[in-house]
Amino acid sequence: MAAHPSGTHDQHNAFNWKASSATRVRSTLLALLVAASGPAWSQAHVSKEGAFSLRASTVSSETLPEVTAKAHGIERDPRRGVLNVTIMHRDKSGETNVRADVHATARDLTGQKRDVPMKEVDANGYISYMGTYDFVRGEVIDFLIDAKPHGAGPRLSLTFRDRMWLVK
Question: Around 127, how many Cα atoms within 13 Å sit in the side-chain half-sphere?
Fold first, then answer.
């Protein structure tokens, strides 16, 4: 099981605790409003291996614009989620998106596994991999993602857990 990346600790400690009371109250209210506005499915999960990283997130198919869903052959449904995966390679010039063989599995808490068929999406030269899965409201799903970048590069694995909520 791959761990979440280290390095986020510094981001959490970056909050200036000497900020005014009003600033802290506004920040807290904003965080509560964002949390209450719907499922926070868009949180990215990352696994790094050398110069490569695998990034994955899930969203409800209902949150996709109708045009986007139709373009990718995704039926919008309140009980259908979309798994999005990207593979990045970092070098001296920055990060670039790379192609990979990507396989994903969803496992519920009873241990029942189901494949999440992934298809490559090329949007103006940016490569990502999308797959859809159905869920039951409140279901907890463990996602297991395995990717092998084309050409040279290590096999990347990522496991993360999401609780599925209906948008409406």
Answer: 17
